Amino acid sequence: MRRLEGKRTIVTGAGSGIGRAIALRFAAEGARVALADVDEGAARKVAAEIGEGCLVQRTDVTVAEEVEGLVRLATERWGGLEVMVNNAGVGVAATAPQTSEEDFERVLAVNLRGTFLGMKYAIPAIRDSGGGAVINMSSIAALVGLKDRAAYSAAKGGILALTRAGAIDHIHEGVRVNCIAPGTVETPWISRITAGYADPEEARRRMRERQPHGRFVRPEEVAAMAAYLASDEAASVVGACMVVDGGVTAG
After folding, report:
1. Of the residues 121, 152, 197, 228, which is catalytic?
2. 195 falls in which pLDDT band (50, 70, 90)?
3. What is residue 160's predicted lDDT score, i.e. its pLDDT?
4. What are the pLDDT digits (tens) for 122-140?
5. 205 belongs to a structural domain
6. Is residue 197 flagged as an active site residue?
7. How many structural domains does the chain have?
């Protein structure tokens, strides 16, 4: 399918995992993609997979000037912007008492502040381009309690609330704001999270088994939902939280 033909898009955290899968899916559906990541080398590898026509920009989503510069790069190069995917994120495995203040602030800065800054600078550009979509990456951690995810849950819950607020604020401007709530996705993030446990393999097994369908969610499955939300087929999807979790929240 080529549902995104010609749509000018930005994907943050595009160097690996879900962001990489979204960038590849968008490009395959005809979008022009700007790949942003704090790891520029990783983003350039994804750009090489896509081929010609994409942009790459090293971006720390916690820094307003860098996010503003990312949006400016895309709009100046392409003359506008239709889609912003706020995907960059980090997490720590800890309860509230176990979480350091530095870790808490970092998780909220990347996940929640990064999403806020992406919306702050992309929404006016999308509005001025005639409308489009903002897709934020929340999590099932915003919907159900997950063990050892205090800071992450707080950040992802904030993203869900920010999505709903943005949806109401900007739909009259032609900007649809939605979010995706994945379950546990097979990405490098799993290894980083489980590394803090005494038995990383046991922690990985528990994470896998909490999905009722018995496996990790694939990044490509989340990318498919993002492609739908970015497309004109989702014209009446506004302020939604689209769950892709293998059944975790069904119980």
Report:
1. 152
2. confident
3. 98
4. 999 999 999 999 999 999 9
5. yes
6. no
7. 1
